[in-house]
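USER:
Working in pairs, take the chain set out below, taking as long as you need, and write a paragraph about the fold.
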Amino acid sequence: MTFGIVDGNGNTVSVAGTLTAAYNGGNIDSGTSCMAYTTVVFTYTESQNYEFVRWDVTGTQGTAATDAANKKVHTYTIGSLNGGTEVNVVVQKKPQITFTQSANGTITVTGTIEGEANQTVESGKWVDRGTDITVTLEPDMGYEVSSPNSGWTAAANSDNYTYTISNMQENQDITPTWSKIPACVVTYSVVDKNGGEAGGLNGTL
């Protein structure tokens, strides 16, 4: 009986969660010999950066299930082992979000993390594949977002912009550019058309 965690090409992945095999009242290592017609239960628990794709089984077939209360936990049960069997869980890496906060604006990202929607996503973290992320760009006072995309949404009464990246499949690096708003100099004076003292005697400006 052999088992492991692999990617879509069959390569072993060592940092993609945990895979255990329960047999005869305890856990066994890959390569352990098991008696025929016994039950073996495999349990895979996802890590933060990898997610479950499918079970890949050669030999005795079984039944797959996902924990209803914790979608990160997946099981495969072979009810009656019959001959040499290899059980692999196939995983794929989740999309990673990266960005760098600068001195002239703030980047905020929200998305779905481990099945929980509307979570704040820190730079370097992962979101669930196939979900959407929302990016908010908030320039500091005196700055604005350079060349905003026509599909972005401008916030009312501010220089902020928000946009959505749908169906996340690949890593996403968010790199906005902030531009300094040109300063305007306003000059003014009061002229007394009656020729009185400069500024006149009546009114304020």
